[in-house]
Amino acid sequence: MKLDEIIKNRYSVRKFASKAVKKEDILACLEAARLAPSACNSQPTHFYILQNDVKNNFADNVFTKLYRPCKFFKNAPVLVALAVDKGANTAVKAGQRITGRPFYMTDQAIAGEHFVLKATELGLGTCWVGWFDSKKAAEFLKLKDTMEVHNLLALGYSEAENTPRPKINRKKLEEISTFLG
Ligand SMILES: Cc1cc2nc3c(=O)[nH]c(=O)nc-3n(C[C@H](O)[C@H](O)[C@H](O)COP(=O)(O)O)c2cc1C
Asked: pLDDT tens, 96-115?
């Protein structure tokens, strides 16, 4: 698949088949994520691959109360927790202090999207998940103080395998871009 095709094929999958995801495919997605750029090459993202009972327990912990509407993601065969280290690198920490911008957030998003695009190429469905209790996620994973989980990825085969992606609803190019000069 060419990159254009991968980008157009990707969509948020929320209903998954029970078919297991091959470990070699997960490793290929992780390799794509590993090659992602990051501020000062600090590589602050750690991918927790949660499956089976651990995944179910994790989902029971993080999709509670206000976050319960996203409990259906428990049905994904794999949940990936993107844990990011806010203090992975001294240069980045200094840069973040000076600019006031959290580079680690950009880093984890790029690495996550590399993972997602590789998964799409392999015929796997994904969904970014932001609606979960991140404090509970950090507790569950026993993360050190400098680490946080800002996003999860649901991963598996779409229940609607071989059906085309839903209609893409996006702003027009003119609305998202401005050429100057
Ligand atoms: C950072 C982020 C967080 C998201 N969180 C959720 C979520 O908690 N629950 C959900 O169902 N979809 C979530 N989504 C999926 C978006 O709703 C989806 O990407 C958007 O509607 C565009 O649809 P598409 O991905 O099918 O193209 C999230 C997407 C991103 C990028």
From this structure: 889 999 999 999 999 999 99
pLDDT band at 162 (very low <50, low <70, confident <90, very high): low
The residue whose CA is least distant from atom 6 of ligand 1 is 129
Sign of the alpha-carbon torsion through 138, 141, 142, 148: negative
Q: Please give the average per-residue pLDDT across 72-82, as a whole number.
A: 98
Closest protein CA for atom 28 of ligand 1:
128
> pTM, whole model, 2 decimals?
0.97
Ligand 1 mean position, distance from CA 156 (Å): 16
**pLDDT mean over 91-95:** 89
Pocket probe for ligand 1: among 9, 12, 131, the residue whose CB has the most ligand atoms within 8 Å is: 12
Task: Report the SS3 class of residue 63.
Answer: coil
Long-range contacts at 85-89 (CB < 8 A, ≥ 24 apart): 85/44, 85/45, 85/46, 85/146, 85/147, 86/44, 86/146, 86/147, 86/148, 87/146, 88/42, 88/43, 88/44, 88/146, 89/39, 89/40, 89/42, 89/44
Locate the domains of the chain by residue range: 20-156
What is the pLDDT averaged over residues 11-34?
97
Cα(30) to ligand 1 centroid in Å equals: 20
CATH topology of domain 20-156: NADH Oxidase (3.40.109)
